[in-house]
Amino acid sequence: MVKSEEISNPRRILAVSLEDSTEQLSRVIKDLTGNDPGSASSSASLAGTTHDLHLKTTYYTATVPIWLDLITTPSEWALSFLSPEAKEVLEVLGGLIVVFAIPDPASTSATKELIREVGKVMKEGLGGWAWDGVSLGVGVGEVAHLDDLDVWDEACGDAGLEFVHVASSAAAPDAKNEFGEKMGVSRVLEAIESNDWASFSAEDDDIAGLAGEAGHEDELELDPENMDFGIDKEDFEGLRAAIWEARMERVWEDDGEGETADKSSNKAAPPGDGAAEKDEGGEELGDEDVQKVEEMMRKLLAVKDMSAGLPEDQRKRLAARAVGEVMREL
């Protein structure tokens, strides 16, 4: 007899919809989890809330968190999720679901844009059809003819999503289509259950390698509650100094001038010294480099904010990965 595995820290599901499709998103989440996400407060937004989906199959049991997000402008939403700061968030996802109200044929452009932009994140951020996760486009509403669903099946397919139609009236849990396949929310649940929800494994985790290449494997203090992920002010000064020295190397190579002693003296001067940050012509050397350090700091803090809801071990892994990538950029 197969022993059921308990997955303690499963991957996450991100479920999104347009702001005017809150009712449809709430219904799908309620039918999946048994809890109405809008019941806590009629005025509260669903965006940023988390709802647990309890899964139990022959092979595993898991409680998968579903993150909800409401989209105002699909293009801006996609841009934010494809930014470097969102990379670690995408890496913990095991499911992406876009819920939309099936619109009147005369007003389909906004819904198609939503599906297209979610598909952009699916393809460029998650890897498209090669991604080892579940990706669904769930259309809620009635249609005059089943053929009217073809346009949404095609739109979702182009975006790398499986289209699932959920009728306005609740269907029987065992309802199947002409091909013997489950329909509606039952199909959504079936697709989710068939996915692999196991999170990071020691074999696949390359964090130690990243930290080792950066030369800080023994120095990183990966406290998930530490805003700087183990990097304090002195470490950032070191980052800034390293970048500044690299910049000075390029300046001297380009100019081909100066004595070795002068070059060494200039390189040794710490960033922040007004005289040291200028070349012989008095040109400022530090603006671009300081900006680069600040961007690195913002990336680390963004990772900290976005990983706040994750278990401690995953937060440590994401912290180490972010630190490793920053150090490799020097």
UniProtKB/TrEMBL annotation:
Protein name, per record: Alpha and gamma adaptin binding protein p34
Gene3D superfamilies for this protein: 3.40.50.11960
Molecular function, one GO term: protein-macromolecule adaptor activity
Organism name: Cytospora schulzeri
PANTHER family: INCREASED RECOMBINATION CENTERS PROTEIN 6
Region called Disordered, residue ranges: 252-292
One Pfam short name: Adaptin_binding
Signal peptide per UniProt: none
Organism domain of life: Eukaryota
GO biological process assignments: vesicle-mediated transport
